[in-house]
Amino acid sequence: MLTLICRHFIAQSSYYFALIAIALLVMMPTFSFVPEGEHLAQIRQRDFITIHTRNTPTTYYQGRHGPTGFEYELMRRFADSLGVSLNLNADHHPESVLPAVREEGDLGAAALPLLTDTPGIHFTRPIIQMQPLVVYRRGLNGIATPSDLVGLSLGTLSGAGTSNALRTLQRDHPELSWNESHELEVAELLAQVEDGPLDAAVIFDHQFRINRLFFPNVERGFTLGDPLSMAWAVPSGRGLGLLNAANSFLEDLQQTGILDQLVERYFGHDDYLEYVGTRTFLTHLDARLPRFTDEFKQAAKTTGFDWKLLAAVGYQESHLDPDAVSPTGVRGLMMLTRPTAKEMGIENRRDPAQSIDGGSRYLRSVMDRLPDEITGDDRLYMAMAAYNVGLGHLYDARDIAEMRGGNPNLWADVREALPLLQQREWHSKTRHGYARGGEPVIYVRNIRRYYEMIEYVERSRQQFFQLEQTPVNANPLLMFEPVPPLD
């Protein structure tokens, strides 16, 4: 009897197994078994990779000398490693990047937090750590602990990962509330803290370091929760070839130290545009300027600028250091890029005479390209701003000034418009997109200050020299107008 039951069970099982096998065969066409390298092969065949990113200073933007940004540098190098060109879609908010990658893109690189169990997405290995940070408006006292955030008007970006830290904090502080923006970017969020609609915000530490100079009324608060990992996103279900290639590329950058160098270049110099103290400036002026005075005077003859103004530009660019290298890789005393040096016929950017000559002539060429309607000091200040941020972004700022009812030919109005290039509301209406628009404002302000100080020092030296040339038997007091005593 037992034998018969076993035989019946085996027969029945075989029958059901057969049905399952047939069902699987029928269903197989509905599954997509993608070869591991098919997606990567498609990219190489079409000869470009489409990457979805954000128009921000920490990811990608059009800088003074062309495209720049930390993740742009990684993206460009990755495309080169694949032997393809780079096709960027930078019109994204953090929340819109992953849907675009799932639907149509090859890769997402937009300061994305590595979040496990994200549907339709594979993340690469971590790139850098991103530490959530509380920032608040200067004047608000006692913002030192999480409980101090209760009752404040608090904001953050939706989809950026910072809201995760707030949700974790909310478990211990149920009364905590905040606003998440689906439209703003980091600079706009900081502007809202500075101007008052928000009391505080949660962003990432590296984002604050690269933006803080433009928002002097925003204070660093305290870190919030554990760091998140920045990673790239690739669509799942299309093979692992691209993911493996990206991981291999990032691992190689890490092993060779190149990644650390890029982190230092883009995030390790948050104060390089700041106005240095008078003591430091005068020390540099005394030790360095005499070495290059003749070169500045010669360049002034060639270009028609005051040599002291050119010296002020040189100090702003490099602190008069012919071996200087900027965070974005430009070199020399006047910080010329290779294309600019080539345009100006300069062979050695580190040669101070060539650098001063090339930088001065480039400033003149920028000034000559401005519209004739811009005159006087307005023309000079706009030329200096364009030397820093590029003519394209300056023209965008002039357009914004006009949109706001200002005069695009007056520096005062363009100066107010330039920082708006950091806000999506405005840069989305321009031809060249996002720019660190606050930077040229500080740049021009610094040069004007340096110029005034160089003028003062030179005038004082001339007066001292005249005193030294006074005959020994002469009375120096005769050189001054006497002040009579009070009656």
Automatic annotation (TrEMBL):
GO terms for biological process: cell wall macromolecule catabolic process; cell wall organization; peptidoglycan metabolic process. Keywords: Cell outer membrane, Cell wall biogenesis/degradation, Lyase, Membrane, Signal, Transmembrane, Transmembrane helix. Residues 271-487 are annotated as: LT domain. One of its GO terms (cellular component) is cell outer membrane. It catalyses: Exolytic cleavage of the (1->4)-beta-glycosidic linkage between N-acetylmuramic acid (MurNAc) and N-acetylglucosamine (GlcNAc) residues in peptidoglycan, from either the reducing or the non-reducing ends of the peptidoglycan chains, with concomitant formation of a 1,6-anhydrobond in the MurNAc residue. It is a peripheral membrane protein. The active site is at 317. Its EC number is 4.2.2.n1. Its main location: membrane. The chain crosses the membrane at residues 15-34. Pfam families: SBP_bac_3 (PF00497), SLT (PF01464). It comes from the Bacteria. The keyword Iron-sulfur does not apply. GO terms for molecular function: peptidoglycan lytic transglycosylase activity. Residues 48-270 form the Solute-binding protein family 3/N-terminal domain. The keyword Signal applies. It is found in: Cell outer membrane. HAMAP family: MltF. Belongs to the transglycosylase Slt family. The N-terminal domain does not have lytic activity and probably modulates enzymatic activity. The C-terminal domain is the catalytic active domain. Murein-degrading enzyme that degrades murein glycan strands and insoluble, high-molecular weight murein sacculi, with the concomitant formation of a 1,6-anhydromuramoyl product. Lytic transglycosylases (LTs) play an integral role in the metabolism of the peptidoglycan (PG) sacculus. Their lytic action creates space within the PG sacculus to allow for its expansion as well as for the insertion of various structures such as secretion systems and flagella. NCBIfam families: PRK10859.1. This is Membrane-bound lytic murein transglycosylase F. It comes from Vreelandella arcis.
